[in-house]
Specification:
Length: 155
């Protein structure tokens, strides 16, 4: 005769295990940082609402702004080359003095990212890396003069 032993797990153990699982998942979500994003993902999350998914200046918020949102795929065309430092400084926004041109039209992402990352020295490193990813992404979506002429003809 076999006697089956039934192992009873106390309900409190199951609740405790469930709580630990949920807490681990929440902590993992909270630990998500700027470093976890590619340049394209950063652009999609922080820039596309104004600049559009393809960086053409046609995001869903663009029409409600007082300032025209530039087509970021034409930066190289406008400047003759891709001005990486200017793009970096414009995104960061903390060291750029735009008072002569009125108020700044876009968020000061360097500050916003810094606060998001914890506002300390480690956060500053994360900000530099995130902005570098954004600059490189924007460099990668540049169109040449012929591309911009074809776009104008279609529109």
């Amino acid at each position: 005769m076999h006697t089956h032993l039934r192992v009873r797990r106390p309900v409190s153990a199951l609740i405790g295990a469930s709580a630990l699982f949920v807490a681990t998942q929440v902590m993992a979500f909270d630990a998500f940082t700027l470093a976890d994003y590619s340049g394209e993902e950063l652009f999609g999350r922080f820039c596309a609402s104004c600049h559009g998914e393809r960086a053409h200046g046609d995001g869903p918020v663009a029409g409600s702004l007082n300032t025209a949102v530039p087509d970021l795929t034409l930066i190289r065309v406008r400047y003759g080359e891709f001005p990486a430092m200017l793009v970096r400084d414009t995104i960061d926004g903390r060291g750029v003095d735009n008072r002569a041109h009125g108020t700044r039209a876009m968020p000061v992402w360097g500050y916003e990212f810094w606060v998001e990352e914890g506002g300390d020295v480690v956060a500053q490193k994360a900000v530099r890396e995130a902005i570098t990813k954004l600059v490189e992404y924007l460099r990668s979506v540049q169109r040449d003069t012929n591309d911009s002429a074809r776009t104008r003809q279609r529109n």
